[in-house]
Amino acid sequence: MLLTIFKSQLVKKMENIVGAENVLSSREELCIYSSDSTNIINADELAQAVVFPQTAMQVSEIMKYAYKKSIPVVARSAGTSVCGACLPKKNGIILDFSKMNRIIEINKDNLICKAEPGVVIEDLKKEAEKYDLFYPPDPSNLKVSMLGGSIALSSGGPHTFKYGSTKDYIIDLEIVTADGKIMHTGCDCSKNVTGYNLTQLFVGSEGTLGIITQAAIRLIPKPEAKRVMLAYFNTLEDTSRTVNDIISNLITPSVIDLIDKNTIQTTESFYPSGMLTDKEAALLIEIDGFKSSLDEQYEKIIEICKNNNSDYIQTAQTPEEEERIWISRRSSFGATAKLAPNVVTEDVVVPRENIVPLVKGIREICSRYNLKTCIMGHIGDGNIHPNIALDLRNEAERINFEKAKEELFRLAISLKGTLSGEHGIGCEKSDFINEAINADCISLMKQIKKLLDPKNILNPKKIFPEVK
């Protein structure tokens, strides 16, 4: 009875702050928000309310109340996290930022965009292009992924190899602290070494240190032209050597992605686009820049591919053909999802020199546990994504997956790599962080967390393993 009264008091307080139309509290509504893209659904960890703030001041008032009452708060945008980063905490508050979706300003002279956390990444990119500007980060789910979550996980995408990830474009954040203060971490200048770089502290922190309510984003001039190609190889060794040779010839493609045979065959089965299905792997290569420079880059890349035994290279001749190649690349997750009721995308990174043993190791692990896997990723920066198809309702498959996942993470660490390049840690990988980061670093991180969130109400149970 007391719990029911407490819940109604919380909901009423939230409605007073944001309006009744911006609060969800029925069990059915809360169940919808009990999961993200990790396939984890825990009906015992339902929030008390889902709240849709529309201003930083509203977020501030919510956090002041939550801090006073020690109520957990989880920030959420599109809910596309694949590491459990936005799963709710029992009896807590979910802040859904989909209504804070304004692109406030694009300043072409200063090459800066200011936007709210609910802005969809693709919309931001398209708006920047109207000014002949470019925002490079492009997660595969950019059509739905929102800025706040992208910053919280420092997401990347295919263009990271040349242009960097989200962390390289955020110059200022408006943050609401655990106790409700509103502060800015940087300024509108692209160069700033005045004090500690607090902006980068919050980028990638998965909502555990503060709530993002606005961002100032660095933009760059849009490249004049681009060219897209697919080069096919009969061995992983040839594929990897090609990447190294391209780089050693002082060419920096805007994209250089690996697509393995299983991924090609699976994608072609469901979204046919004319990719060759009998090759061990393909490289999706995109070059961009001034039109006058592309021919020389292109001819050199073709020569390097052929020297490394690529006997078939597809080059897009029209924007439509470019789009078809990209649709095939971005459809790999959806295609893999047709192989089984569930698909889990993992995300590990190793030095580029260890890509071949990583990919072969992933295949061996998944084969040993009878798991279907399609491997792709950003080979230029060593970031590989195994898409694993399985039926999580099958207890044997679920157990096999947990064992395979553990071996996969430890394989990446043994190859001088780490647990995540762009998906984050969340609760899915928290049990392994002690193996990836030394104890002194983890201790310092926990001290920072305690300083900024002394009551542990900001996205608790994420990143660090829960004390049993």
CATH class category label of the largest domain: Alpha Beta
**Straight-line distance between termini:** 29 Å
Number of helices: 16
**Shape annotation:** globular
Query: Which oligomeric state applies?
Result: single chain
Pairing-aware structural class of the strands and helices?
A: alpha+beta
Q: Report the mean per-residue pLDDT as an integer.
A: 93
> β content, as a range?
15-25%
How many domains is the backbone divided into? 4
Computed Rg: 23 Å
Q: Tell me the CATH architecture of the largest domain.
A: 2-Layer Sandwich
The total strand number stands at 19
Task: Give the tags.
468 residues; alpha+beta; Uridine Diphospho-n-acetylenolpyruvylglucosamine Reductase, domain 2; Uridine Diphospho-n-acetylenolpyruvylglucosamine Reductase, domain 3; Alpha-Beta Plaits; eight-stranded antiparallel sheet; five-stranded antiparallel sheet; 16 helices; 36% helix; disordered N terminus
Overview of this protein structure:
The protein contains 16 helices and 19 strands. The chain has helices at residues 2-18, 27-32, 56-69, 121-129, 147-152, 160-163, 198-202, 236-248, 261-270, 291-307, 319-330, 332-336, 355-368, 395-414, 433-436, 439-452, and strands at 23-24, 49-51, 73-76, 93-96, 103-107, 112-115, 133-134, 170-176, 182-184, 211-218, 220-221, 225-233, 255-260, 281-289, 312-315, 342-345, 348-349, 372-378, 383-390. The strands form four sheets. Strands 12, 13, 14, 15, 16, 17, 18 and 19 form an eight-stranded antiparallel beta sheet that branches. The relative contact order is 0.11.
